[in-house]
Amino acid sequence: MQKHPRKLLVVITEAAIERALIADLRRLGALGYTVNEVRGGGSSGERSGEWEAERSVKFQVVCTEEAAERIAAHLLQAYGPHYRIVLYLADVEVFRGEKF
To answer: Hey, what's the signal peptide range on this chain (predicted)?
Structure first.
């Protein structure tokens, strides 16, 4: 079975900007995404999600390396100064390359 190399871009941020991120992802080359509500903690404190302003979401985007870099650069520039946002990248292999 043929596999195709892609990147997994993960974005964890405040739920308040979910709709804006969806528009940005599509405009910047993501063919799809998965989003989940998440909770956690780190150097910026705890985010339990108990009230609306404290909700966080995690986006997972499988895409080409070029799209991942374009998306990450935009998100950090546009949202990094104003919102809590974490991005990380991993190598993945997919079976249906045309979908990503």
So the answer is: none
Closest by CA position to 39, among listed 64, 21, 17, 57: 57
Write the CA distances from 57 to 11, 14, 47, 84, integer angstroms: 8, 6, 11, 11
SS (HEC) of 24-77: HHHHCCCCCCEEEEECEEECCEEECCCCHHHCEEEEEEEECHHHHHHHHHHHHH
Chain segment 36-63, per-residue pLDDT in tens: 999 887 766 665 556 666 799 999 999 9
Structural domains of the chain, ranges and CATH numbers in brackets: 4-99 (3.30.70.120)
Query: Quick one: which of 93, 90, 68, 71 has its CA closest to 80?
Result: 71
